Amino acid sequence: MNLLITGGCGFIGSNFVRYWLEHHPGDHVVVYDKLTYAGRRENLQELWGDPRLRLVQADIADLETVRRSCQEHGTDLIVNFAAETHVDQSILGPLVFTDTNVRGTHVLLEVARELGIRLHHISTDEVYGHIPDRHQSIETDPLAPRSPYAASKAAADQLVQAYHITYGLPVTITRGANNVGPYQYPEKAVPLFSTNAILGEPLPVYGDGRQMRDYAHVFDHCTGIETVLLRGEIGEVYNVGTGREMTNLEMVGIVLDTLGKGHDLVRHVTDRPGHDRRYSMNVHKLRALGWEPRYDPRQAVAEAARWYAEHRGWWEPIRSGEFREYYARQYAERLADQEQR
Ligand code: NAD
Ligand code: TYD
C-alpha cells in the first residue's frame, strides 16, 4: 500500500511513520509536511535512507502539490496528522489554525474525492469541549469546542463526515486523548515540565492544576489508528485513549518523582483563558475492534519524562532556538506575577 502521511515530521506523525514501516514492511510512505516550527526532519533521522520513505515539504492547503504528490506516488490512503496543534498558540495567533486545520483538511478531501483515495483524519478529544464529572464522551456526542484550536479541529471533523455523506468518500476519524511520548515539541505540558525540571526551572501550572486529562502513550495511539485503518468501519469515528484521567497536579508529581526533582519547582500561574476543566472519553468502540492500550496513564507520563532525560540532544537545540521567544511571551509575565505574590 502507498500511504501519504501528512504531518509525518511532527510528534505523533513521526511515531506513526516509524511504527508503520516497522510493522508493514511492504508499504511505501510519503511524508507530506510543511516543516513548521513543530515539524522536524530529525524526528525520523534514522529512516531517511530507507527507500520506502520520501519527504515532500509542502503545505496541505496547496491543492496542486497535494494532487501531484498523490498522482506521482500512486497514493491509496491519506492519513492526515498535519495541523497546528497547540491551544496556547491558538490563543496567541488563531488564523493559521483555520488555514491549516480547516482549509488544509478541506483541500485533502477534495483531492481524495477527485482521485478516489481513502482518507483517515486524526482528530482530538478537545472537539467534545469540557466534560462534566462522571460523563465520558462517546463518538456520537455533539461537538462543543471551546478554544480556537478545538473549534478548527471540530470544523475539520464535520467536513470529513460531510464528504462521506455527500460524496460517499471512504473516510474514518480517530479522536485521540492527550498524547505523551518521544519527540513531542516542548510547548506541550509533559515535555515542557520534564525539560524545565531537568534544567531546574519552575513548572508553570495553570490555575489550580486540578484540570483532568487522559495522558495516553503515543504508541497506543499508533496502534489505535492502525486498528481503525485495518478493521474500522468506513464512515465511522473512534475515540482513542486509556479511558482514565488524572489531574495536572498528579501528572506534574509523576514527572518530578520520575526525574528525582523537588515539588518546590511547581508554580501556580495565571490560568489559560477558556481552559477546559476535564476531557474524558469512552473507548469501548475501539476496544470492540480488538484494540487494547499497552500503557496506563501513570506509566505513560513516567516513560515520557524518562525519554526527555535520556534525549537532551533532541530537545536542547529546540529550547535554545526560536522556542525561547515563545516561552518568554507565554510565561515571563505569568511567572513574574507569581513571584510577587
Ligand atoms: P505536532 O504539532 O507535533 O505536528 C504537526 C505536524 O504538522 C508538524 O510536522 C508540522 O510541520 C505539520 N504541519 C503543520 N501545518 C502544516 C501544513 N499546513 N501543511 C503540512 N504540514 C503541516 O502535532 P502532533 O501533536 O503530532 O499532532 C498530530 C495530529 O494529532 C494533529 O492533527 C492533532 O490535532 C492531533 N492530536 C494531537 C494530540 C496530542 O496530544 N498531541 C491529541 C489528539 C490529537
Ligand atoms: P497541553 O499539553 O497544552 O494539552 P491540552 O491543553 O491540549 O490538553 O496541556 C495539558 C494540560 O496542562 C492542560 O490542562 C493545560 C495544562 N498546562 C499547564 O498547566 N501549564 C502549561 O504550561 C501548559 C503548556 C499546559
Structural notes for this entry:
Helix 6 packs parallel to helix 8. The protein is built from twelve helices and 13 strands. It folds into two domains: 2-180 and 214-240, Rossmann fold, CATH 3.40.50; 189-212 and 246-274 and 298-334, UDP-galactose 4-epimerase, domain 1. The longest helix is centred in the N-terminal third of the chain and has 21 residues, at 95-115. It has a seven-stranded parallel β-sheet, with helices on both faces. The chain has helices at residues 11-23, 63-73, 87-92, 95-115, 148-167, 189-199, 218-231, 248-259, 284-287, 297-310, 312-319, 323-340; strands spanning 2-6, 28-33, 53-57, 77-80, 118-124, 171-176, 178-180, 203-206, 212-213, 215-217, 237-240, 246-247, 266-269. Helices cover 45% and strands 16% of the residues. The protein is of the alpha/beta class and 341 residues long. The radius of gyration is 19 Å and the shape is globular. The structure holds nicotinamide-adenine-dinucleotide and thymidine-5'-diphosphate (TYD). The site of thymidine-5'-diphosphate has 13 residues, from helix 3, helix 6 and strand 8. This is dTDP-glucose 4,6-dehydratase. Keywords: Lyase, NAD. Residues 4-303 form the NAD(P)-binding domain. Its EC number is 4.2.1.46. GO terms for molecular function: dTDP-glucose 4,6-dehydratase activity.
